[in-house]
């Protein structure tokens, strides 16, 4: 059984708000010839990114990156990171799109790697922010919702590759496979 924390409608409203904030922030900084480079973190942020990017009104380019720290459960393991070539990122304004920022370890490692690419700026947009669990200093510049310490699924987020297809963000009331 899944307890719904954020409905489809609540998420849609928040995504629209985030798109407006991002568009307003980057409008004076980017152009067609020098677009905002958006970096959705796969796999979790793909649904959020798809909905968000269709509402952003500034020129942008999408470069996917893959970061994985959860394997077959709810406990974080070692980080595996695959990022685009530096030539695609250097000198551009970069916006990292995350499904959730939890402890901050993953985001911190991604940021450190991306800073080495020489961006004009680097910021994070996350659908969910869980600051109560933060152990690495990470600032979420654009946030959809701040949540308590819960393991969430749906809207692209998973438990062992399950539940990504749910159109809402929920919490499992009982963990069964």
UniProtKB/TrEMBL annotation:
<keyword id="KW-0963">Cytoplasm</keyword>
<comment type="similarity">
    <text>Belongs to the purine/pyrimidine phosphoribosyltransferase family.</text>
</comment>
<protein>
    <recommendedName>
        <fullName>Hypoxanthine phosphoribosyltransferase</fullName>
        <ecNumber>2.4.2.8</ecNumber>
    </recommendedName>
</protein>
<keyword id="KW-0808">Transferase</keyword>
<keyword id="KW-0660">Purine salvage</keyword>
<keyword id="KW-0328">Glycosyltransferase</keyword>
<keyword id="KW-0479">Metal-binding</keyword>
<dbReference type="InterPro" id="IPR005904">
    <property type="entry name" value="Hxn_phspho_trans"/>
</dbReference>
<dbReference type="Pfam" id="PF00156">
    <property type="entry name" value="Pribosyltran"/>
</dbReference>
<dbReference type="InterPro" id="IPR050408">
    <property type="entry name" value="HGPRT"/>
</dbReference>
<dbReference type="InterPro" id="IPR029057">
    <property type="entry name" value="PRTase-like"/>
</dbReference>
<keyword id="KW-0547">Nucleotide-binding</keyword>
<comment type="pathway">
    <text>Purine metabolism; GMP biosynthesis via salvage pathway; GMP from guanine: step 1/1.</text>
</comment>
<comment type="pathway">
    <text>Purine metabolism; IMP biosynthesis via salvage pathway; IMP from hypoxanthine: step 1/1.</text>
</comment>
<dbReference type="InterPro" id="IPR000836">
    <property type="entry name" value="PRTase_dom"/>
</dbReference>
<feature type="domain" description="Phosphoribosyltransferase">
    <location>
        <begin position="3"/>
        <end position="158"/>
    </location>
</feature>
<dbReference type="GO" id="GO:0016757">
    <property type="term" value="F:glycosyltransferase activity"/>
</dbReference>
<keyword id="KW-0460">Magnesium</keyword>
